[in-house]
Amino acid sequence: MELFHISAECYPAAKVGGLADVVGALPKYQSTEGHDVRVVIPGYDTKFINENEFECVHWSHVKLGNFNFPFSVHKEKTDKLGFELYIIAIQELFDRKEVYGYEDDIERFVAFQIATLDWILGRREIPDVINCHDHHTGLIPFMMFYAYKYQKLKNTPTVLTIHSGLYQGIFGFNKLYYLPEFDLAHVGVLEWGNAINSLAVGIKCASAVTTVSPNYLNEINHSSNGLESLFNMVRQKSKGILNGIDEKVWNPATDKVLVSNYTIDAIENGKQENKEKLCDIFDLDPSKPLFSFIGRLLEEKGADLLPQASALALAENLNEINILILGSGNETIATELNQLLPDYKGNYNTFIGYNEDLAHLIFAGSDFLLMPSRVEPCGLNQMYALRYGTIPVVRRTGGLKDTVIDFEDGGNGICHEQASVTDICTSIRRALKMYEDKKTLNKIRKSGMQIDHSWSSVCKEYTI
Ligand code: ADP
Question: Cβ(326) to ligand 1 under 6 A?
Answer without folding.
Answer: yes
